[in-house]
Amino acid sequence: MRLRDTGSDRFTKAWRWMTGIGAASKVLPALVALSLLAAACSPATVTKPPKPRTTVTTATAMTWSAPRLIDPSGYLSSVSCPSPSFCVAVDHSGNAVTYNGASWSAPRSIDPNEMLMSVSCPSPSFCVAVDNVGLATTYSDGSWLSPKTVSGGAFDSVSCPSPSFCVGLSGGIITYNGSTWITPSKKILISQRSFGHLRALSCPTTRFCAAVGYGNHFSGHVITYNGATWSSPHALDLDSGLFSLSCPTARFCVVIDDQGQAVTYNGVSWSAPVSIALSGPREGKNPSFLTSVSCSSPSFCVAVGSSGDAFTFNGTSWSSPKVIDPNGILESVSCPTARFCAAVDYAGKVIVDEAGHL
């Protein structure tokens, strides 16, 4: 298994947490080095935005299951659920675990010896998973195809609004047309020293995508796609790394950062940042940070964080935190509807909300 080489601050933070709960210490020095490199390449002067306002409501009535082990190898990195009856979760050992609406399968190796970083399923019959060395593997009608090299570097994220259109982030932006991965003639190059790093994207349609990142010019910035071209980076007034976003439609997105701030998009403009009330650090651990967000509509989103907390958005404000994974670090969440969400953690566990049905 190869070490991820994208330089993500999120992985450094997560490993700091995990070293306190038995993680393999041999990976930490490499991650620390990457963190120091990112810090060294940051601008010398940063203009701080005004302190964001905090809007918190009482927790939305959601019934989450107890954490359930579905992957003994652990390190679940991403989950995608196109419907309440189908999900795929992938891990850092090259395995995929599927959900059929009633139970989770045993882990299946789909990318041996590599680390799967992201998965996207626009439907129960089609998914794409990408890894840390530039390989992509496709799920079609119940079968996973052999991984193919489609990029020269690690993938950070992939988003597929349909089986005939996907976008991947791998040192630049790569698209899939249903049969072939294509590097645009005018590739958006992501230089760690010059521009920073794009690390998350969301494409609700083939004519709209948004991508965010961290480091230098991309800290607190978003770029968007209109079906033909990508925009220049647009400042969101956040000075932190932007780690996740979700756009259920072309007229609504939510972006979260590692400091507990959220920004929304209404199809025309981006809001001012709002602070989400993160939990305090667990005993002997670092402060909490947000890791993932998923929105089924403009009136329902769920964000999860490193302290095992979940936060819900009702279209106006964010709830107070609810601990759904007391001993885990939640890494990814997917909510295809307001009545179903699945969240996965670094210990190979899943927590599901089925509006009280589980």
Keywords:
32 strands; single chain; 358 residues; five-stranded antiparallel sheet; disordered N terminus; mainly beta; five-stranded mixed sheet
Molecular structure report:
- It is a single chain.
- The protein has 358 residues and is mainly beta.
- It is built from two helices and 32 strands.
- The strands form eight sheets. It has a five-stranded mixed beta sheet, with no helix packed on it. Strands 8, 9, 10, 11 and 12 form a five-stranded antiparallel beta sheet that branches. Strands 3-32-31-30 form a four-stranded antiparallel beta sheet, with no helix packed on it.
- Strand 19 and strand 20 form a beta hairpin.
- Helix 1 packs antiparallel against helix 2.
- It is globular.
- The relative contact order is 0.16.
The global form is globular
Alpha carbon gyration radius: 18 Å
Determine the mean pLDDT: 80
How would you characterize the largest beta sheet? 5 strands, mixed
Number of E-type strands:
32
By helix and strand content, what is the structural category?
mainly beta
Proportion of beta-strand residues = 35-45%
Question: Strand order across the biggest sheet?
Answer: 1-24-23-22-21
**Low-confidence sequence ranges:** 1-60, 189-195
Provide a count of the helices. Answer: 2
* Helix fraction bin: under 10%
Distance between the termini: 35 Å
Topology:
Layout: H1 9-18, H2 28-40, E1 53-54, E2 56-57, E3 68-69, E4 76-83, E5 86-91, E6 95-99, E7 108-109, E8 116-123, E9 126-131, E10 135-140, E11 143-144, E12 148-149, E13 157-162, E14 165-169, E15 173-176, E16 181-182, E17 197-205, E18 208-214, E19 221-225, E20 234-235, E21 242-249, E22 252-257, E23 261-265, E24 274-275, E25 290-297, E26 300-305, E27 309-313, E28 318-319, E29 322-323, E30 330-337, E31 340-345, E32 349-353
Parallel strand pairs: 1-24, 2-28
Antiparallel strand pairs: 3-32, 4-5, 5-6, 6-7, 8-9, 9-10, 10-11, 10-12, 13-14, 14-15, 15-16, 17-18, 18-19, 19-20, 21-22, 22-23, 23-24, 25-26, 26-27, 27-29, 30-31, 31-32
